[in-house]
């Protein structure tokens, strides 16, 4: 069996409540990346888009930077935590101001997969013939 690596990707400051994002994230925990992307593409929630972007980012990190096989990728960790809160006020009657908070979320995706086997360099026939002639 090939070596296993775990690759991370973060999506910080998503402008949605962490509770709503966690609802969507729970749909795809412990699934393959391909299955998760199909499920989220057909999920009618606004928070599905940031989760898709985070998973695609982790997939791109794994395939392009670390040389993992894209077909073997599995979501090992998908956690949603509370991000920064912006304190705001809403005007109310009689000159009052009612406070509220704009919540944000942080999404952490860890993907695990097998490392692609290294290909041996292909030697051209002309180079083989030159090597034989020099010997």
Oligomer: single chain
- Rg, Cα atoms, Å: 24 Å
State the distance separating the first and last CA atoms.
40 Å
Numbering strands along the chain, what is their spatial order in the largest sheet?
1-5-2
Flag low-confidence runs. Answer: none
CATH topology: Ribosomal Protein L22, Chain A
Model description:
The model has no long low-confidence stretch (mean pLDDT 92). α2 (33-41) packs antiparallel against α3. The longest helix is centred in the middle third of the chain and has 18 residues, at 48-65. A hairpin with a 5-residue loop joins β3 and β4. With 135 residues, the chain is an alpha+beta fold. The protein has a single domain, classed as Ribosomal Protein L22, Chain A (Alpha-Beta Complex). The protein contains four helices and five strands. The relative contact order is 0.26.
């Amino acid at each position: 069996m090939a070596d296993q690596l775990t690759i991370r990707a973060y999506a910080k400051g998503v402008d949605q409540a962490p509770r709503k994002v966690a609802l969507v994230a729970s749909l795809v925990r412990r699934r393959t990346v391909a299955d998760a992307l199909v499920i989220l593409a057909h999920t009618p929630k606004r928070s599905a888009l940031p989760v898709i972007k985070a998973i695609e980012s982790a997939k791109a990190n794994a395939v392009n930077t670390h040389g993992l096989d894209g077909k073997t990728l599995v979501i090992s960790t998908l956690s949603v935590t509370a991000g920064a809160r912006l304190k705001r006020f809403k005007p109310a009657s009689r000159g009052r101001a009612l406070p509220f908070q704009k919540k944000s979320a942080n999404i952490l995706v860890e993907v695990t997969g097998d490392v692609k086997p290294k290909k041996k360099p292909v030697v051209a026939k002309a180079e083989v013939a030159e090597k034989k002639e020099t010997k």
